[in-house]
């Protein structure tokens, strides 16, 4: 059972590429091994947050559906 | 604007119709001189109803039959196995509905790749199996085999190649799997017909003639004899359009290898240079087993709509698969093709070169793009990310 995210970012209402930019700007605020959650209702974020993780060497842990169609994307900083 | 010297089989378009930097052949192309002349001749001689018994009708019928024979020669089928309908959606719906009706005792499931044209996904509806694709957009042969072998499958549908990312599908393996399962296969040969080897083992075939330089509004639907097919009312495309599309097809076939060599080289240049000149760009699709004239790449931290607009101001007309790009074809969300591939979807540019796109245009594009991307990233506060 993993720890709760060390940081939660609210990107609701922001359309691509803003949610990913927000994540990229703030990932340094947590330590390696910790989790960041990104709340996004942007359809593109479902593909783009995992793609960003791949490009930057972090882990996409998963996306949890929220009420209203938004998703809570969870990323683990790896380095 | 440098003029290129015509090579054998070179397609001569009307240059006045567009900017040299128009790079959206997949979206639409201006008619070549040949196609335009055939269209004019078609309207001059073939405007009457080809089903009528009068002289004018019979003249239109002759032109229609000649055009249909030209298609049959290219496709290696009988002329009476071919119909013409106005849109890809019409062709696909007719194919799906017709086969579902004919095979209703078997089932209604349509098996298709996750990256089919939206008209296929739409016609398949909810009783469908969407077969996953790999990171390059190619359907997984094992998953395809398993999909078509399920009970209750009415039809399998697979594109010959994907026009968004260029990747060719494993048609031979897909045909064999469908045959083994006793399931008819619908091949979407748009973008490949007229430009290379013809898929030879299909039960049904659709192709949008605009993809080989015909005027819009002509789609061919091929149904092999032996496919159980309920009689459906004919969807009539005007004979002049069909005539022009056949002329464009013949011209396309004649120029195919010269066009492919040139386009392959130009696209390879873009594939190699874009990631060299710009950081954090994902160039998508199979680098080798692909349509010669198409390339798609996604730029991290860039707004796709802003990128299209900036490139347009710089003289380049391109398309985009991004959700954040204005594209009337797309509803909410990014391209389903990019999403199915797990690819980066924002900052996406889709280029497709035309038969007469010059090397100078390619170099100008490569020079224009990096400062545009840098500016957009800086403006979004992502310049140092």
Question: Your description of this structure?
Answer:
The complex is a heterodimer of chains A (79) and B (385). With 79 residues, chain A is α+β, with helices and mostly antiparallel strands. Chain A has helices spanning 18-26, 45-56; strands spanning 7-10, 35-40, 59-65, 71-76. In chain A, strands 1-2-4-3 form a 4-stranded mixed sheet, covered by helices on one side. In chain A, strand 3 (59-65) and strand 4 form a beta hairpin. In chain A, helix 1 (18-26) packs parallel to helix 2 (45-56). Chain B has 385 residues and is an alpha/beta fold. Chain B has 10 helices and 10 strands. In chain B, helix 2 runs parallel beside helix 7 and helix 5 runs parallel beside helix 6. The radius of gyration of chain B is 21 Å and the shape is globular. Mean pLDDT of chain B is 93; it is low at 1-5.
Strand content of chain B: 5-15%
- Low-confidence segments of chain B: 1-5
- Strands across the major sheet of chain A, in which order? 1-2-4-3
- Helical proportion of chain B? 25-40%
**Tally of alpha and pi helices of chain B:** 10
The shape of chain A is: globular
Helix and strand arrangement:
The complex is a heterodimer of chains A (79) and B (385).
Chain A: E1 7-10, H1 18-26, E2 35-40, H2 45-56, E3 59-65, E4 71-76
Parallel strand pairs in A: 1-2
Antiparallel strand pairs in A: 2-4, 3-4
Helix pairs in contact in A: 1-2
Chain B: H1 33-45, H2 55-75, E1 82-85, H3 88-102, E2 109-113, H4 118-124, E3 128-131, H5 141-148, E4 153-159, H6 171-181, E5 185-188, E6 204-208, E7 219-223, H7 239-277, E8 281-284, E9 294-299, H8 304-313, H9 336-340, E10 348-352, H10 359-379
Parallel strand pairs in B: 2-3, 2-4, 4-5, 5-6
Antiparallel strand pairs in B: 1-7, 6-7, 8-9, 9-10
């Amino acid at each position: 059972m993993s720890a709760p995210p060390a940081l939660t970012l609210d990107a609701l209402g922001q359309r691509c590429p803003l949610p990913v930019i927000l994540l990229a700007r703030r990932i340094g605020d947590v330590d390696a091994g910790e989790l960041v959650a990104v709340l996004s209702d942007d359809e593109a974020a479902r593909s783009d947050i995992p793609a960003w993780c791949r490009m930057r060497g972090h882990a996409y842990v998963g996306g949890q559906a929220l009420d209203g169609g938004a998703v809570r994307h969870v990323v683990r900083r790896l380095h | 604007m440098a003029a290129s010297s015509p090579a054998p089989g070179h397609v001569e378009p009307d240059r006045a119709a567009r900017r040299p930097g128009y790079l959206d052949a997949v979206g639409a192309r201006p008619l070549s001189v040949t196609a335009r002349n055939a269209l004019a001749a078609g309207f001059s001689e073939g405007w009457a109803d080809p089903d009528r018994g009068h002289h004018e009708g019979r003249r239109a019928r002759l032109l229609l039959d000649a055009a249909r024979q030209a298609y049959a020669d290219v496709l290696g089928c009988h002329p009476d196995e071919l119909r013409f309908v106005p849109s890809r959606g019409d062709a696909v719906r007719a194919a799906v509905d017709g086969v579902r009706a004919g095979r209703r005792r078997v089932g209604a499931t349509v098996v298709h790749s996750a990256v089919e044209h939206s008209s296929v996904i739409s016609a398949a509806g909810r009783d469908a199996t969407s077969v996953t694709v790999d990171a390059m957009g190619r359907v997984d042969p094992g998953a395809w085999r398993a999909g078509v072998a399920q009970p209750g499958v009415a039809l399998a549908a697979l594109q010959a190649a994907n026009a968004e990312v260029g990747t060719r599908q494993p048609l031979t393996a897909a045909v064999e799997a469908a045959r083994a399962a006793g399931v008819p296969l619908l091949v979407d040969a748009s973008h490949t017909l007229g430009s290379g080897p013809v898929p030879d083992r299909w039960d049904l075939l659709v192709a949008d003639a605009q993809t080989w330089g015909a005027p819009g509004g002509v789609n061919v639907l091929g149904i092999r004899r032996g496919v159980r097919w309920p009689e459906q009312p004919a969807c009539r495309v005007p004979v002049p359009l069909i005539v022009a599309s056949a002329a464009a097809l013949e011209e396309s076939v004649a120029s195919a290898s010269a066009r492919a060599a040139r386009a392959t080289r130009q696209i390879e240049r873009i594939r190699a240079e874009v990631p060299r000149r710009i950081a954090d760009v994902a160039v998508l699709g199979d680098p080798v087993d692909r349509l010669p004239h198409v390339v798609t790449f996604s730029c991290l931290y860039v707004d796709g709509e802003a990128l299209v607009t900036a490139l347009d101001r710089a003289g380049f007309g391109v398309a985009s698969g991004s959700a954040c790009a204005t594209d009337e074809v797309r509803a909410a969300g990014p391209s389903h093709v990019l999403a199915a591939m797990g690819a980066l979807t924002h900052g996406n540019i889709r280029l497709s070169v035309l038969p007469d796109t010059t090397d100078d245009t390619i170099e100008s594009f490569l020079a224009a793009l990096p400062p545009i991307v840098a500016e957009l990233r800086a403006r979004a506060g992502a310049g140092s990310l």
